[in-house]
Prior knowledge:
Strand 12 (about 385-390), helix 16 (about 395-405) and strand 13 (about 410) form a beta-alpha-beta unit. An 8-stranded parallel sheet has the order 4-13-12-11-10-7-6-5. The protein has a 3-stranded antiparallel sheet with strand order 1-14-15. The protein has a two-stranded antiparallel ribbon with strand order 2-3. It contains 21 helices and 15 strands. It folds into 2 domains: about 1-70; about 145-425 and about 450-505, TIM Barrel (Alpha-Beta Barrel). It starts with a helix and ends in a 14-residue tail after the last helix. It is α/β, with parallel strands linked by helices.
Amino acid sequence: MLHYLNSIFPVRYTALALSSVGLLLSLFAVVGFGVGMQAALLFAALLGLGVFDVRQTKRSILRNYPIIGHLRFMMEYVRPEIRQYFIESDSEAAPFSRAQRSLVYQRAKGEPDKQPFGTQLAVYAEGYEWMNHSVAPTQLASHDFRVTIGADTTQPYEASIFNISAMSFGALSAHAVLALNAGAKRGGFAHDTGEGSISVHHWKNGGDLIWEIGSGYFGCRNADGIFCADKFITNACDPQVKMIELKLSQGAKPGHGGVLPGAKVTPEIAEARGVPVGVDCISPASHSAFHTPTEMMHFIARLRELSGGKPTGFKLCIGHPWEWFAIVKAMLATGITPDFIVVDGAEGGTGAAPLEFTDHVGSPLQEGLLLVHNTLRGAGLRERIKVGCAGKVVSAFDIARLMALGADWCNSARGFMFALGCIQAQHCASGQCPTGVTTQDPLRQQSLVVPDKADRVYNFHQQTLHALKELVQAAGLTHPSDITAHHIVRRTADRKVLSFAQLILTQLPAGALLQDELVGLPLIYQHSWPLASANSFMLQNT
Length: 542
C-alpha cells in the first residue's frame, strides 16, 4: 500500500503537499472566521518556494526534495564544518581528504578553487606527499594533454589523459549517462560505457566512447550468453566508438561477477545489453570466449580485426601475480599485444559489492600499476602498450602522482559522479538516489537536468587539466608524461624524506625478464615469473 501511495505522490514531496493543505486551511480560516492571515501568508510562501524548487535546474536535491532540501543548504551556510560534513561525508576508510572532495564541486560549478590560510594537510605526518618544483618553470600554451593509443592500428585514438571511467547504464540513470556523454563531447575526452554496453543514451550526444566488454558480452551476445561477432561488429564499427576494452576484473569486486535482478532489467537496459526484459541479468565471474592466456591474446586480436582496426586492450585489477605474468608470457609467445591495458585499483567503487571484496580483495592501484609497468618493461613490451589506470582519481595531483608511477593516462568515476551532483548518500543499489545519478526511477532522475550537469562535467575536466598544467609548469616540464618517480616525494614512517624513485623500484631494467637469470630482481619476479605459463592461468609446478 505504501509503495502504491508513493508511486502516486512521492513521500519526498510531503512538505510541498502539507504546504498546500496548510494554505487552503488558512484561507478557510481567513474567510470563515477572519483569522489566520499570517498562517496563510506563511503557507503561501512555502508553496511558492516548493514550486520554484521543482522547476529550477541547478540543484537536484531541491528538485527531488522541495522545501525540506533547504535545510541541508542552510546548515552548509551556517557553518563551514557542517558544510564539509554534508558535501564530503564518506566511509571512514576512504582516503579522500575534505579538500579533495570540495575541489570537485568547486571546479564543476566553475567556482574559485583557491584555499585560504595555506595547506590543510599535516605536512609533517607519515605518508605526506608533494611534488618538487623548479626554479625555472615552463609556460605551456594549452592544457589539452593527449596520448596516442594504438599507434600501429589503422584507427589510432588521440585520447585525453583524463577520461570518464567505466560506469554502466543501469548502474547510472539515463540522465546521468546523457550528461556525462554530453560533457565528454564538449571537452573532447572519452566516456567508458562500463560492461552494461552502449545504450541509446550513450549514442545521443555523440561523445567519444570506449566500449567495455565484460564476461556477459552485453551488446554482443547470443541468447545463451556466448560472444556474437555479428552483433559486435554492428556497435564496434560505429565511428563514435574509439576503443574496445575487454574487462577481466574490476577493482571493487574482482573475481566476483554480478547479478542485475530482473525487476531492474527495464526495456531500455534489456535493449542495450541484449537480454530479456524482467529476467535476472548475469555477469559471470569468468569469460567463456577464452580459457588460457594464449586464447585471450587471439581473442583480443580478433576483436581488433572485427572492429576495423581500432585500439583494443583489456582492464584488470591485479590478483595472483603469476596470472598476470602468464598473460605477458602469452604476448611474448604469440607476438600479439594489446594496444592498451587499464589497471583498476581495489580502492575503486561500485554501487553494490560484498564488504569483504571492497575492503580485502584485489591489489591497490599503486601496487597494481607498478607491477604492470615494470613487468612490461622487463618483458621489453612497454613501448608497444599504453597503460591507463583508475581508482579514486579526482585531482590534478592524483594524475601527476600516477603518471610518475608509470601511467600514460587516468580515468575517474567518482570525480565525475561528484560533478553530476552525487552527495554519496549510499543509496546506489536501492533506487532511492536523492540526486538522480544512480536511479532508474523516472521521477527521481528528472531532478538531474542534463544541460546543467553536462556543463559541470565539462568544467570539472577542464579545470582539473588546467591545474595539472600549472603543476607541470611549476616542475619545469612540458607534458605530464615527463613526470617521473624523481618528481614526487613522500615522508616515511621513520621521518625520512624520499622520492618515489628511492622508495620503490619503478623502473625494472628493460628486458630483464628475458634473461636466463633473474638474480637481483624483486622477489615477486624470482618466485612467480618462472611458474607462469602462456598456456594456463594456473600456477605451474616445477
